[in-house]
Amino acid sequence: MSVARKILQVPICVALAVCPINLFAQAGPTGGGMTEVGVMVLSETEVPFTTTLPGRAVAKEQTEIRPRVEGVIEEIAYTAGQRVEAGDLLFRLDAETYEAAYASAEAARDSAEATLITAQAAYDRYTKLEGVGASTSDLESARATLAQAKASVKSAEADLKQAQLDLDRVEIRSPIAGIPDVPEFSVGSLVTANQSDALTTVTRLDPIYVDVSESSARLMRIREQVDAGTLTPGKQLDVTLTLENGEVYDGKGTLISPGVTVSTTTGSIDLRFEFDNPDRLILPGQFLRVDVTLGTSKAILVPQRATTRQSDGTLTAFVAEDGTAHQVTLSYSETANNAWIVTDGVSVGDEIILDGLTNLTDGATITTVPVTINDAGVVEDAASDDSDTTTEAD
Fold first, then answer.
1. Which domains does the chain have, with CATH numbers?
2. Which of 67, 116, 167, 222 has CB atoms 3.0–4.6 Å from 98's, for a disulfide?
């Protein structure tokens, strides 16, 4: 055979040194027409039982600020967006009218007290003179006058207290600690008592609530799993939050309001979780995702890269048995990391084929090599200590 002919028999990819490296590439039939594949023995493992619920952020406390007396806004004493404490001044109204009303009520109280002193003295005098210098009729009249004077004092004191309340209410203070919104009225605006339009809104953002809903039917299934022993509840719920940008929130949540009624329209139960929110990353109205880990359950995990979704929607995989590849249909409940939680189709001890799946058919003759798969979904040679040879896809 000529040298030129020998060179032509060299695979082009070798000559160019550009052949892709794959752990178990389909090298075509080897001796006996067998295909080499990478397999992993399935086992039962403890996996977290997590349910994902869509939710919406709700302020723990939120109050609309309205005036309780009429007046002209004289001062806006806060800065929008900066935290205020309970009792901090927000608005001040013109107080002249209420100061005058208070002075008038105070004078009326003093007059009533003076009248009471006179009536008391007359009653005491008629009491001493009864039967001697005063008749019983005079005594009864003095008693009635005294009672009326006492009533007048109480009425005057009530009027004075109301005047004091009105005077105090010209200073509109925050009832809660939180973040005040932009004022809806400016200095010089005339406002009325208990008007429909709020002057501003104060919202408490730390901590904050996240409300979610869960199907009552699903909650019943979870309870059945706990009763059957297939789900082991944790000592406490592990509650994490995913923000609108896809980032996982640092803080953990606490269940504070378990639902006790089922909606007649949606068949769901409302739950409320509380999260610390010191940096105000969570704002009321945001749509979020809550992941609740209820406990652990024993399950068979099949890596997703070992499976194929058929045109009819079924999920299939290949298992190795006695040197032959067998295609099986899988049933699954949830996902865990990069794997399916399989409920039917495979059993503990089966060898699932992870690599060498290209063009693999049901009933094909194969040879197997043990492999493992890491958390990133990368297949590694189980026989290699340094795991230098890896593959991410066929």
1. 19-42+310-391 (2.40.420.20), 50-60+204-297 (2.40.30.170), 70-203 (2.40.50.100)
2. 167
